[in-house]
Amino acid sequence: MTRSRTADGSAGDADYGRIGGHYADYRRPDARIAAAIVEALATAQSVVNIGAGAGSYEPADRSVTAVEPSASMRAQRPSHLPPAVDAVAEELPFADASFDAAMTTFSVHQWPDLAAGLREMRRVATGPVVILTCDPALLDRFWLAEYAPEVIATEARRYPTPDAIAEHLGGHTTVRVVPIPLDCTDGFNEAYYGRPEMLLDPAARKSCSAWSFVAPDRAAAYTEALRTALDDGSWDRRYGHLRTQPTYDGSLVLVVNTPERRAG
């Protein structure tokens, strides 16, 4: 089954040829989040990274094969990383059991056919499937829901629940919340929980794909509401304690699936 793709090659619901130009600058992997992923990969030495983007979170101590449909994102991969394979999650061009593990970060919500993509990850990996994603049920706890409700609603609509992910993978699945550091270098919306001024930066917002689904006039109104709250001090009166809170437990979760072991 061939998936519809943009001119850039993006195969999900966001056009990264239009919004992905600054991802390598604003969506830099955070070492503490990366450590959680490496721990989940356990002893796997060969890893396929699905929806690899600009190469965030690819472990340097493993043999990694990256898969990324967007030409814009492939072009932003640093020179020390191998080129990414141009393919989509639902149709991986690899034989069964080709890798020790499969991983994907901030990608499953983009896939037109979640079930097919997850089945493909499980098919090509003999060991863990590791998924960094957001739990839509936890998004409302973030203060941005007050200032930009449609952005949070968009994210909640797009992200699959951990239960849905587990159902399609079979085997055994664990889910844990990943603490977000105050100085997180990966600029997804919640990464700015204690640095709200960053979301006044147009490039920072553009690097969070949910903003691209909001009409420009609505997004401008949301941004102005946040700017006003920062200028008049109302944001700090309500949320100022977050400016010094070392970590934040938001919607970021790590879903780790291991296959069923056959008897005999």
Automatic annotation (TrEMBL):
Do the record's keywords include Transmembrane helix?
no
GO BP field: methylation
Q: Does the keyword Chaperone apply?
A: no
Q: Which SUPFAM superfamilies match?
A: S-adenosyl-L-methionine-dependent methyltransferases
Recite the UniProt keywords alphabetically. Methyltransferase, Transferase, Ubiquinone
Please name the InterPro entries in this protein's record: Methyltransf_11 (IPR013216), SAM-dependent_MTases_sf (IPR029063)
Query: What is a single molecular function from GO for this protein?
Result: S-adenosylmethionine-dependent methyltransferase activity
- Positions of the Methyltransferase type domain: 49-124
The protein's matches in Pfam families, at most eight in alphabetical order, are given as: Methyltransf_11
The name this protein goes by in its record:
Ubiquinone/menaquinone biosynthesis C-methylase UbiE
Q: What is the lineage of its organism?
A: Bacteria, Bacillati, Actinomycetota, Actinomycetes, Pseudonocardiales
